[in-house]
Amino acid sequence: SSGINFGKYDNIPVKVTGENVPAPIKAFSEANLRGIISENVTKSGYKVPTPIQKVSIPIISAGRDMMACAQTGSGKTAAFLLPILSYILEENIGMEIGKPLAVIMSPTRELAIQIYNEARKFSFTSYLKIAIVYGGTSVKHQNDSITKGCHVLIATPGRLLDFVNRTFITFTNTRFVVLDEADRMLDMGFADSMRQMMTHITMRPEHQTLMFSATFPEEIQRMAGEFLKDYVFVTIGVVGG
Ligand code: ADP
Ligand code: MG
């Protein structure tokens, strides 16, 4: 069941700043998603994109970095998953063990699992492999899922860095980095982990970084300035610092 109350979005203020920002879409049919992904969107019961989806899907598809502030429950997961999954299928990029094409960092195991489930739902019947790693459980079991190979990796910060330091994971093929719920990761003390991961990522020049946050405190603004290049800044609704 979807928790989206579209009525409450009717008059929501949307602010987009940046150079040459692609126009928002009005319908999923304008999103240029791969057939399989589109079918799964329909099967999920998604009829109309939410405001954050309308604005960010074309921005992400255009290859731009983005900082997006939008409240919980506004549909941020599909906003980043749909263009990323679609891109990987479209480009038919080869997958190598331990070298994910997309890495999504999420503050908690519960949120990571939610993203994982959405990613599985949207990529259903495609060849895409989605993996998840989080702390508090055996490294061995989760390493198995990585040694089988994955296109998309969803991870909590501590365990992700653990795997990177053990060289189970390298970012040499990584095209997409998503920092989801960035403000919450800060509150949980993951600022160093985020910076460390971005240091590993930026050793490779060709990647696209997307940051999502419900609020926009100074430290997040600073991180956006550090991590993002020529980025589009999106706020949906009234966002507190
Ligand atoms: P956020 O990450 O912004 O907190 P989620 O991505 O978790 O929000 O979405 C909240 C809920 O809304 C989820 O149950 C999701 O499946 C549903 N949802 C997202 N986008 C749509 C849409 N376009 N139509 C219907 N339901 C949607
Ligand atoms: Mg979310």
From TrEMBL:
Residue intervals of the DEAD-box RNA helicase Q domain: 26-54
Whole sequence portion shown: 208 to 448 of 645
Residue ranges crossing the lipid bilayer per the database entry: none
Organism from which the protein derives: Drosophila lebanonensis (Fruit fly)
Residues in the signal sequence: none
Similarity comment: family membership: Belongs to the DEAD box helicase family.
Motif (Q motif): 26-54
Top-level taxon: Eukaryota
Residues of the Helicase ATP-binding domain: 57-234
Record protein name field: RNA helicase
Gene that this sequence comes from: LOC115626393
